[in-house]
Amino acid sequence: MYLELKSKIESNKARIGIIGLGYVGLPLAVEFAKAGFDVTGFEIDNAKVKSINMGKSYISDVATAALSPLVKDKRLKASADFSRLKGMDAIITCVPTPLRKSKDPDVSYIISATSSIFQSLKKGQLIILESTTYPGTTRELVQPMLEQGGLKCGVDYFLAFSPERVDPGNSRYGIHNTAKVVGGVTHKCGTLAEMLYARITNKVVRVSSTEAAEMVKLLENTFRAVNIALVNEVALMCDRLNLDVWEIIDAAASKPFGYIPFYPGPGIGGHCIPLDPHYLSWKLKTLNFYSRFIELAGEMNSRMPEHLVRKVVDALNDAGKTIRNAAILVIGVAYKKDVSDLRESPALDVMNLLWKRHAKLAYYDPYVKSVHIDGASFKSVGDLNAVGSYDAVVIVTDHSNIDYGHIVKNAKMVIDSRNATRGIKSKNVVKL
Ligand code: SAJ
Question: What single-letter DSSP state applies at residue 344?
Fold first, then answer.
């Protein structure tokens, strides 16, 4: 079993199934297909299946030009028929792991993917979970589900965890040049997973267990959430000290060691940083350990939309205007620069708060066509020609392809939460 699968992997002959063709699964499928593997993507969304089989990408980090030749050469295909999993040698699960409203992990997508795998599980298959989740998920949740039929892990089938490290919108680091962490339930499981990823990335970091691999990812994202929260608190301090937090951070960043710059903002968005750390704090609560940093970071980061709106209210007030009926243009609503993703975007909170204060609201985002908040829907204005007609312009996400010089020159007032106007001299810019 083991030797047969090992040689299939070494010769790129292993048939690979990827469950979930989102911002993680699709780039992964393309990398394996580019390396010469026969790849089948499994999706519950028929529209995605159709789009892939037409060679059309719906993920901004995967160019259609990179996808279509692989589909044409039949190296990559998509299917909604999960019974075809039985024809795979390796199956990698890349499904969402959101939080419930109660901030408890929602592992329902992992459960449903694992149950599909179990129904088709065959001797000799390698199963890998990539979805970010709490330490213990692979061994405590996935393994028992796969062994209901009596197959034994490390003997009849192989099981590992390897966290995804996709950074949407990052054109410098992709799968091929980002080290991949891998941990197996048994040594053989880890070795097979390590060998598989070595075919598509330049560095594989083997750790001692699936729990270690699950924890590495949560450390990475908790590190970001806590450091962003710290710098958001520093922004509140500087606001009270009448200091320019951006000047302070840039000067601190001149230190060549012992410091990594993070930047304040309107809050944190995306499907990882606001959510993943709560998987860790939830797990530790079951062990009667309360992670104060994670909870505090979450609370601190979620205060930022209110802070930004208060800056808008104060800036209008200084100009003798009220927020009620003020014409306000929000610029940039995606959760971060140069992406089109709205998930957990703090811009939605900012728009909600302005809307509730009866502002006459509009937004501009070249990547996001429409936005829905409580009780209202908006379409992006087509351009920034009329930027001078608004009482205030609020920069929430600093996309690179926006002319901030034009905005500063023509807007009556700019509240800039991202230092997007850095270096542009003007009296009408208020910063976070
Ligand atoms: N943000 C700040 N200040 C900062 C950095 C980020 O306010 O200094 C905000 C961003 O605007 C965004 C949120 O925090 O709203 C998250 O930013 P992010 O760049 O961490 O966002 P993600 O979730 O797209 O990407 C991260 C990856 N980012 C980097 O490593 C730079 C990485 O942590 C993971 O590989 C990925 O999430 C994931 O999938 O977990």
Answer: T
Q: Where are the alpha helices (DSSP H) in 199-322?
A: 210-241, 245-252, 276-285, 292-301, 304-318
Q: Which domain holds residue 322?
A: 303-432
Nearest CA to ligand 1 atom 13: 268
Q: Each residue's pLDDT tens digit in the chain (432 positions)?
A: 899 999 999 999 999 999 999 999 999 999 999 999 999 999 999 999 999 999 999 998 999 999 999 999 999 999 999 999 999 999 999 999 999 988 899 999 999 999 999 999 999 999 999 999 999 999 999 999 999 999 999 999 999 999 999 998 899 999 999 999 999 999 999 999 999 999 999 999 999 999 999 999 999 999 999 999 999 999 999 999 999 999 999 999 999 999 999 999 999 999 899 999 999 999 999 999 999 999 999 999 999 999 999 999 999 999 999 999 999 999 999 999 999 999 999 999 999 999 999 999 999 999 999 999 988 999 999 999 999 999 999 999 999 999 999 999 999 999 999 999 999 988 899 999
Same domain, 138 and 20: yes
pTM listed for this prediction: 0.94
Are residues 293 and 334 located together in one domain of the fold? no
Q: Which of 94, 189, 238, 272 is catalytic?
A: 272
- With a CB cutoff of 8 Å and minimum separation 6, the contacts of 321 are 391
> 377: part of which helix (H) or strand (E)?
strand 376-379
User: Do 254 and 396 fall within a single domain?
Assistant: no
Active site residue 94: no
Q: How far is CA 336 from CA 61, 166, 342, 393, 422, in A?
A: 14, 14, 9, 18, 17
75 and 119, same structural domain? yes
Residue closest by Cα to atom 30 of ligand 1: 167
The alpha carbon of 264 and the centre of ligand 1 are apart by a number of angstroms equal to: 12
Which domain CATH number covers 28? Answer: 3.40.50.720
Residue 334, token pair as written in the block: 């995606």
